[in-house]
Amino acid sequence: MTLRDISPAVHDLVGIGFGPSNLALAIALQEQAASGRPLDAHFLEKQQNYQWHGNTLVSQSEMQISFLKDLVSMRNPTSPYSFVNYLHRHGRLVDFINLRTFYPSRMEYNDYLRWAASHFAGQCSLGEEVQTIEPETDGGRIDRVRVISRDAQGRERTRVARSIVLSTGGTPRIPEAFRGMRDDSRVTHHSGYLNWIRNQPCVGGKPMRIAVIGAGQSAAEAFIDLHGNYPSVKVDWMVRGAALKPADDSPFVNEIFAPAYTDVVFEQAQAGRDRLIEAYLNTNYSVIDADLIEQIYAMLYRQKVSGQFRANLLTCKAVRAAHGGANGIELTVATTAPGAGIDADSETRRYDAVVLATGYERESHRRLLEPLARYLGDFLVDRNYRVQAAPELAVPVYLQGFCQSSHGLSDTLLSVLPVRAEEIAGAIHDALSANRDRCWAPSTVQKDGSQAIAAA
Ligand SMILES: Cc1cc2nc3c(=O)[nH]c(=O)nc-3n(C[C@H](O)[C@H](O)[C@H](O)COP(=O)(O)OP(=O)(O)OC[C@H]3O[C@@H](n4cnc5c(N)ncnc54)[C@H](O)[C@@H]3O)c2cc1C
Ligand SMILES: NC(=O)c1ccc[n+]([C@@H]2O[C@H](COP(=O)([O-])OP(=O)(O)OC[C@H]3O[C@@H](n4cnc5c(N)ncnc54)[C@H](OP(=O)(O)O)[C@@H]3O)[C@@H](O)[C@H]2O)c1
């Protein structure tokens, strides 16, 4: 049985998720309040112990973006929430300068985000997973929604919001062949890697054969970690393509991640937006940091010299079926002709475990907003990330991380966080003020038929 809280609090804004997107928003809202435009905002985060992709923080993992693109600096370099101030507060500024890098470890960046988040402890409830967002309706205009969350003990809680910002990030993409193995503890998606590997027999030195699937940054980091930290593991890395490809982070291309480029994408018709996104997919998807590719090549070459083969890269391989049995996981693996997508050959391979580094889907907004779906159409957003809704829904709903197709490749990344947060913070304030003005306008008719009093 679930226990339900019966006295919901009402907030101007409820933010779902407290990853970097909503954390940047909380900071922008604080600045906006200081300039005389306060809003009462509360955030809900499902993790009890706040982390940034915490189960992927292997020791070798580095940021793929300059620390200057932190939560605030591109909007307000004097903000106390900058990465530089974090270093200063932790007594590491000089040492960090000596590292001579723009790319801190992801462990350190996680610590930075935790530090920034700790300043908003009073505004964020950790350990509460939002289940759904429902309209509060009496059949007419909807001025509020109910946000229903559940904690680890199964207690349900309802909060009432005048606006919503949904920033729940990606959801693991599980290939069709593995859908029936969701409960098999021998298979993990990369998003759960560290928790999973801790419980594998290789931690105690037992021999294991592990397959890694996918050709992106996550797969590369899992491959290196398994080979480097678990000497009893033999790892096969299977990719569908003919070669590992580097992420293009060259300076001219990198200009597509500038805040101004959001307008360039948004102002196109959809076909133009699609073309711009397609043209630069190799900055982010199915690609690997060039330095890491060099490291992997050198590592595989050293094996050729020593004649000891513990790690293999298998190209042009596609898993067609997976079956978990008492003797391990059997994969039916097809060899595809490069470029043709046609199976040339097929074989069965057996593993003790599988890591699916198969990327992420961005669909959770549709599930959480399902009770409002009839008002939200196809979730098209305006320039300020507000979903274009039917007029009955007066509650503005904003999305962060689900707008790549309209706002460009930056949308799922850290690139434009400070600027986007400011745009959304201002838009919410304006939308709620407009709602209030509408409610208080002299001509507004009350439910009982009398006229409302004009606001002072
Ligand atoms: C391993 C990894 C490394 C990355 N490294 C980089 C990088 O170096 N540079 C870069 O620009 N981008 C990177 N990215 C892209 C990444 O999307 C962004 O860095 C960033 O995490 C986006 O922030 P977000 O807040 O939108 O989403 P997330 O960081 O995914 O945060 C979403 C938050 O919402 C919470 N949540 C989800 N559902 C619910 C719910 N129902 N109720 C309550 N809370 C919920 C989650 O627990 C999470 O804390 C990386 C992605 C991954 C997977
Ligand atoms: N250090 C870091 O900063 C760091 C670390 C990890 C991740 N990230 C970021 O996280 C984001 C996601 O990266 P990611 O590597 O997790 O995902 P990704 O780049 O989307 O790559 C997913 C890979 O999975 C493969 N794949 C998908 N479905 C498959 C299927 N059915 N069968 C076989 N293979 C399949 C894809 O193959 P194809 O190539 O054949 O399509 C692709 O190579 C990126 O922004 C990345 O930069 C950053």
TrEMBL record:
<keyword id="KW-0521">NADP</keyword>
<protein>
    <submittedName>
        <fullName>Lysine N(6)-hydroxylase/L-ornithine N(5)-oxygenase family protein</fullName>
    </submittedName>
</protein>
<comment type="pathway">
    <text>Siderophore biosynthesis.</text>
</comment>
<keyword id="KW-0274">FAD</keyword>
<dbReference type="Pfam" id="PF13434">
    <property type="entry name" value="Lys_Orn_oxgnase"/>
</dbReference>
<dbReference type="InterPro" id="IPR036188">
    <property type="entry name" value="FAD/NAD-bd_sf"/>
</dbReference>
<dbReference type="InterPro" id="IPR025700">
    <property type="entry name" value="Lys/Orn_oxygenase"/>
</dbReference>
<keyword id="KW-0285">Flavoprotein</keyword>
<comment type="similarity">
    <text>Belongs to the lysine N(6)-hydroxylase/L-ornithine N(5)-oxygenase family.</text>
</comment>
<keyword id="KW-0560">Oxidoreductase</keyword>
